[in-house]
Known about the structure:
By secondary structure, the protein is mainly alpha-helical. Helices cover about 65% and strands about 0% of the residues. The protein is built from 22 helices and two strands. The protein has a two-stranded antiparallel sheet with strand order 1-2. Strand 1 and strand 2 (about 380-385) form a beta hairpin. The protein is globular, with a radius of gyration of 22 Å. It starts with a helix and ends in an 11-residue tail after the last helix.
Amino acid sequence: MNRRMVVYRVGQIMVLExxxxxxxxxxxxxxxxxxxxxxxxxxxxxxxxxxxxxxxxMKPYDNVMFAKEGVSIVAFxxxxxxxxxxxxxxxxxxxxxxxxxxxxxxSGFTTTGxxxxxxxxxxxxxxxxxxxxxxxxxxxxxxxxxxAIIPTxxxxxxxIMRAEMPGPVVGKLVPRLRDTAKILYLxxxxxxxxETLLLLAGGMPLYDSIVHxxxxxxxxxxxxxxxxxxxxxxxxxxxxxxxxxxxxINFNLYYLVLMKKFKVAVKNSELWLFGILILASTVxxxxxxxxxxxxxxxxARHSFFxxxxxxxxxxxxxxxxNTWPGLSRNLLFILMFIGGxxxxxAGGLKISRIMIMMKTIYxxxxxxxxxxxxxxxxxxxxxxxxxxIRRVSTYFVLYCLLIVAVFLLISFExxxxxxxxxxxxxxFNNVGPGLGAVGPAGGYSGYSDFSTIVLSFAMLLGRLExxxxxxxxxxxNWVNKNK
Length: 483
């Protein structure tokens, strides 16, 4: 294990976080929020201190990086990002309990959107901006951002991208990894800017437009009002709903479109299944909730918005779906598991994994009928290797076991079965709202410090897709000679 490499890279991330905190600090300056200004200043100083020391004293002797270094950098960087990112909330006393501030920050960086703040109107503009900005930072991945702006000497940085980017398979768009990171972030920024402009065109104030575009881009869903998006007009709700779909799609497809490879992008099977699931779920729920709203337009809008919000794991809401009929609530609960496409900012299992598992099951059944046949699992005409299929199966088993573990660990809380189960599922899948007490009209403020920490690590496990956290804390990963 090249420990110096791990510590040095994590130090770089701390310095980058300090730079990124300048943006909410400027927002605090604009709105004259002196307490926030001081809090962000103290947090920036802390981040710089933590980051610069290892960069000065722990510079690696060489830049060799293998998978174990990559996953360790990602795991420890995300944990430290959240620990330091919670400081502005804690220093300003807007979230006086540090464990609660940590939960809120983890929820932001992992783009979960689960919140325990009960009075958003009492929050300062600077802190509300920081909450939503953490979504944008965590959506594409802060280490991917670092690769885009900081030159690296190592040719093995793909290990970092694989550990941080969601999905069973991660590849380069262009030969140079740094150029791939730049392309991804340029697309990400351009789409965020486009949504901001469209929200402004619909009459949403500039601050609101920026904050909601950041939350949509990261598929996080932190709002600035108690009713989330419910208080805005129908046009604005439709814009946000459409962009939740856009950010739930694999960003590689947008690159293909830019390269004028339209046919390849349109034929993507994951994209088609994603669209079919959204359309089918929207129709079913719209019909089911029609008696609640009494007209087709409102039923379709609320249905489409909530389906896209849950499938993209954004978590915004236009209505309290806790009060909807059982069929709609149950269907939304199922969609929490599915999530968006691989290579997007969405959470969940991912459409691609579900496709691989379903095709593997089909092939196994087929081989039972024809034992001598050799059948390969193919996605978009390309055969998958056995390693990828095995990892998908292993991930699914761990995914189920860890959700059960989280559910059991928080089961002593004074909530009903529905609340605790959906809290565990929602946090692990980075969705945000659940059912019962943690529904759109509720929150996570009733959980104890212990459960808050458990749910925080559930969000980290879900965002980093389990393996980086497990490998980073495996003692066998650290027994090699320190370099």
